[in-house]
Amino acid sequence: MQMKRATALLCALVITACSQKTAEQQIEDAKRLVLEGEEIAAIVELKNAVVTEPNNAEARFQLGLLEFQQGLWEEAEKELRRSLELGYSKVQNYPLLIKAIFYQNDFLRVLTELENSPEINDTRVVSTIALFEYLSKLKAGEQNPVIPTKRLQREDLLIAQAYQTLESGKPQVAKNITEQFISPEIEPFEKLILKGMIESLMGNHVEAIIANTKALEIYPTYHVARFLLAEQLIEDKQLNRANEEIDKLLALNPNSGHANYLKSLVYFYQNEYEQAYNLANLALQHKAKPALASFISGTSAYYTGRLESALRLLSTAATTLPPAHPVHRMLAQVKLELGYVDEVAGSLDDLNIEPGQGAEIYSLAALQKLQQGEDAETESLLSKAKELDPNNPVGLLREGYILLDENKPGAADSLARALELAPDLSEAWILLAQAKYEEDGLESALAVADDWAELNELNGELLRGIIYLRDNNEKQAIAHFTNLVKRDPDNAGAIRYLMIGEARWDNFDKAIEYGEKLLDLAPNNLQNLIDVVNIKIAIGQEEELENFLKQRIAKFPESDAASSALALIYSRAKQPEKAINLLKGIAEPQSFGVYQALGDAYVSVKNFDKAIETYRDWTQKFPTDSNSWYRLIATYQMVNNFDGALEATQNARRYLPRDERLILVEAHLAASTGRFAQSKRAIELLSEDSSELVNLTHTRGLLALNEKRFSDAVSLLSAYYETNPGFAVARLLALAHAGLGQPNKGLEYLQTEAAKENDTLVFKLISAEYASSYGMYDASIELYNQVLAQKPDDFASLNNLASVYTQAGDLTKAAEIAKRVIEIAPDSPYALDTYGYVLLKQGKVQEGQAFVERALGKDPNNKEIQLHNVEALILNNELTQARSMLSRIRPATPLQLSLHKELKSRLDAQK
């Protein structure tokens, strides 16, 4: 307790001692400390002076000046502005104030501040202010701002000219200008920043590093210079020093996108691809250097085995980076490894790939075209492959496959030639056996197996089993596979054939034995595990599956296949919570099954946000898996996020451009969200005989309605309504009939559907509004009354009903209901407008106008209230104002169009 009292007494004595000094003495002490190199102590002394005498302009200025010199821009601005308000010299103060704002990189605020700049006659100060005004315009993005030549003195003019020249892409000319500097005391910091930028653009990294280092010696807190320094250090491969500078930036803001990008670049050059991948992704999350960060992340993904992620990231980068950038070659490499050969084939010349690889690409592209049924394109691509390298064994292998598939002669010759050049092409041996089987029968095919056996007896035995399967002699095939497994117990191909064969013969115990052996060889192969699970289910071991899969999870903790299968079992048993608890802790799933099971479980418990997140991760990990996209799109639709669904569909089509189901979904979603041109383009991609066109009746009807082809719209939507009745399509049909001048027929559809949904009042409200829009007031009143019978105080129904009575001319009833609406919601612009408009129609102009104007004040962009206000102005004989306001209104609904036309006619009649 005594220690605390002593401390308090000491603090009191210090404060008393400080308070004995005047502000002037404190200012003098601060100046002395500056001369001694104790700037921080001087700042403390000046802060004490400000406490002693808050309105001391000198103290405020000296404090602001010192804070400016320390790079404390925000604090400096505050003190300089206060000293200016207290009457301190504008000549000394104002240029510092402008520069303090400028070095906060708040260039627009500099320009705003200068709009009310004080009058200053000192030419040196005028020049400084003019320079920073010009630089602010340049850095705020103004196109080609004019240099204020007459206000700038020589050195400032050179700085401005150098920046202008640099901005136009002429760094050497800008450097020539800077070599004319002769006054080092004028804006030394800005000159160093300028020099660093010029040298970096010229590729003179060492000079740029020196300039930025010197700039930071002047103002260590100007982090723009530190970013520039770090970039140049990386360019010069001074990676350790770059790391030090980046760490300083990250210490200030760990989430800095640009700093994380630079850090990823350092790791990338150090071949630390895992760290580079993670940091580049963090940079992308903060939208820093999106193209370059995507390149670093994508390339790092490739080197760490994330091929699908690499494809997505590099594709994004390639849309922005120039043709000479290495991203395009890296993207081609990834696409090749993923099988997107057709895309790469079209740009071979630009990628400078050697002929052998080119032949392989073209032959692979030919295979793709074969699978798509484009025979002419297949033949063309095969020809290109042979032109590039007629003796490429892989090209010959694919040629043989294509000829065999098309049942054309020459397949066996191409395959035999491929094997002459590369006897280790296993696929060529299998295809040659098939070609020989189809040409000459079983013995000829077995002769191929014998030839292969001379090179590798085990491969020959495998091929014999495959040939006997092709000949439907399963017993003989199993004998060869069994013999092979005896000699090669880990031959996964033979084991799989045996498992399937034994299962088909109902030898389930034997099938399970082979299945478990197969799983030991490839524990993360989900398809094999599912096959084993299905066999166990077939023999009635479903209750044992949970323990079986848990044992596999414990035995192979690095594999997620067993967890996927168990989660699917839980979901099948309607236990989604158990599936979620099992899978949600897997950080980076390697199997699609984890994403599928987890996402499906989230959907089961209606946690759609988590389901979307999971399915989105699935699409990013396996973007060519159509099931991932279908589930993501469907979940977006479940939560009525149609924009999200459309965006997902567009992303999916980048990877699956010919998927007709996706084209169908895109067409429907685009039309439903008002993107009619996009919807039409999608429909045009479907062939005329596509079965999917039948499913687009609704979408094509919606397009016809948008294009005001009302007859086509009625025909298409009626056909859809017959098989898929519902209020949504009934509403479209009603609008189509209204377009044909048959609104009453449209109302029949709406009333039919609204009557089906007795517990959903919104359909009746929509129908009532439709009826009133087309002058069917009795029907509208009846529908609103049906709603009010269930919800007597429903605000929307009462307010709209009052409006309908007004339109129908029953002003007494309208006023009665409008008063009731005002009592329910006295501040609602809709209630105020409705009541005001009734009063106008009753001839109570002044009173009605007051209500309408109050409504307009609360909702100034409401077109209906605007039109009512114009009518009030006309009734009050304020015609000029009425014309001006009416000219600015663009009516949207039939009712607004009708009222606008009527008001214009009334104004024209009074000219």
TrEMBL record:
Pfam families: TPR_16 (PF13432), TPR_19 (PF14559), TPR_8 (PF13181). Keywords: Signal, TPR repeat. TPR repeats lie at residues 57-90, 458-491, 592-625, 795-828. SMART domains: TPR. The keyword Signal applies. Transmembrane segments: none annotated. It comes from the Bacteria. Gene3D superfamilies: Tetratricopeptide repeat domain (1.25.40.10). Residues 1-23 form the signal peptide. The keyword Signal applies. This is PEP-CTERM system TPR-repeat protein PrsT. It comes from Alteromonas alba. The gene is prsT.
